[in-house]
Design a protein that fits this description.
The complex is a heterodimer of chains A (112) and B (125). In chain A, strands 2, 4, 5, 6, 9, 10 and 11 form a seven-stranded mixed sheet that branches. Chain A has a four-stranded antiparallel sheet with strand order 1-3-8-7, with no helix packed on it. Chain A has no helices and eleven strands. Chain A has 112 residues and is mostly beta strands. Chain A is globular. Chain B is mainly β and 125 residues long. Chain B contains no helices and eleven strands. In chain B, the strands form two sheets. In chain B, strands 2, 4, 5, 6, 9, 10 and 11 form a seven-stranded mixed sheet that branches. The termini of chain B are far apart. The chains are: A mainly beta (112), B mainly beta (125). Chains A and B meet through strand 5 and strand 10 of A and strand 9 and strand 10 of B.
Amino acid sequence: DIVMTQTPLSSPVTLGQPASISCRSSQSLVHSDGNTYLSWLQQRPGQPPRLLIYKISNRFSGVPDRFSGSGAGTDFTLKISRVEAEDVGVYYCMQATQFPPTFGQGTKVEIK
Amino acid sequence: QVQLVQSGAEVKKPGASVKVSCKASGYTFTSYDINWVRQATGQGLEWMGWMNPNSGNTGYAQKFQGRVTMTRNTSISTAYMELSSLRSEDTAVYYCARGRPAPWVRGDDYGMDVWGQGTTVTVSS
């Protein structure tokens, strides 16, 4: 199975300041069809996960543009340009390039 | 709107089975895979398996092979996940999530784009 490793595991951030989360995969996530199935999910306290970003950098419907994704191959990043109070939660990267899909351990974003 | 609504919380004894349902609305049920993901309290997300509601084909994580069964009833747009031989370590919130679209669906492959609200399964003697 592909192992997804996120850093940091915890990120205290000041409101209005940026935040960045790194995700590294144990193998390349480039699929034979040319796509890279790397997603980012947000899970607010007490809520189910919510899709933020798909295929590395595409924002899902309704996701604010302060969220952005980048990367290629085995190294990926989620950035929040200016953290707002509603962004508190745990963020997961997930790969669906290779069976079975696997998740990172999660990164907890909290306000300082 | 596109929605997945899951069945209510369950309490089971060790060795028993549990069957969780996931009712889809707002889209054509047979046009998207359904995934099942679980999360133990305070822990991360763990993928359990997927089902193609059109064909009934399934794929399970090795960890759950032999213990999990995913089925569907297309007449009521509902997917089911049954987990048997329950043990205390199976205590978790179980989620269904809409997955890959069928080849005939126009639009992009968003991955797991819509999630159910979760079903808490508690295994305790």
